[in-house]
Amino acid sequence: MGIRPTLTLWATFAAVIALSLPGIATSQTISRSGDKATTQRKGSGLPIPRFASLRSDEVNVRAGPGTRYPIEWVFRRKALPVEIVAEYENYRKIRDWQGASGWVHQSLLSGKRSFIVSSKAASVHKTPAVSAEIVARLEPEVMGEIRSCTGDWCRVRVSNVTGWIQRTSMWGVYKSEPIN
Predict the structure, then answer these.
(1) Which of 51, 64, 73, 105 is most buried, judging by how many CB atoms fall within 10 Å of its CB?
(2) How far apart are the first and last CA of the chain?
(3) Residues 23, 71: Cα–Cα separation, whole Å
(4) Would the pLDDT of 3 be above 50?
């Protein structure tokens, strides 16, 4: 009988502490699924998966969503396209064109759309047609900026060359995703 009030007191104390810590009550929501309580952290609200690009020449990729997780590797290629596959607070789990994945802080990502030629050389055409004049040939791992996409073609810029490339020749855009 003397133990129950002590447990209740500790539970009340823990609840007061949890509510008084900054961000605890506002950064998460608790929902019940059957008998289990699950915690969901708020993200950006944007659709997942989606493409983005690296904002910096040096981006640490971590094992988990936070600075307490070790750095697994460092990207050293600004504007590299990446796919955001998950979110946790200010961290985004990304996947690169070769399938490697890890967590980066959202401030290291940009909404600018870019592409990379992933496997074999790709042709940049003057207009969006296979029969159109070829203005450039891009080798694998060449990157560029996506200006717009319609149908099977995307208008791109690589260095000072602008033209059209087939979606299937690059990585960084979904099959039927419109980009304006």
Answers:
(1) 51
(2) 69
(3) 25
(4) no
pLDDT at residue 67 is higher than 60: yes
Q: Which residues of 92-127 are buried (b: 16+ CB within 10 A; e: fewer)?
A: bbbebbeeeebbbbeebbeeebbbbbbeeebbbbee
The whole-model pTM stands at 0.74
What is the third-level CATH fold of 115-169? SH3 type barrels. (2.30.30)
> Cβ distance 117 to 142 under 8 Å?
yes
CA distance 145 to 159: 9
Q: What is the pLDDT of residues 33-42, one digit of tens each?
A: 343 333 344 6
Topology (CATH level 3) of domain 50-112 = SH3 type barrels. (2.30.30)
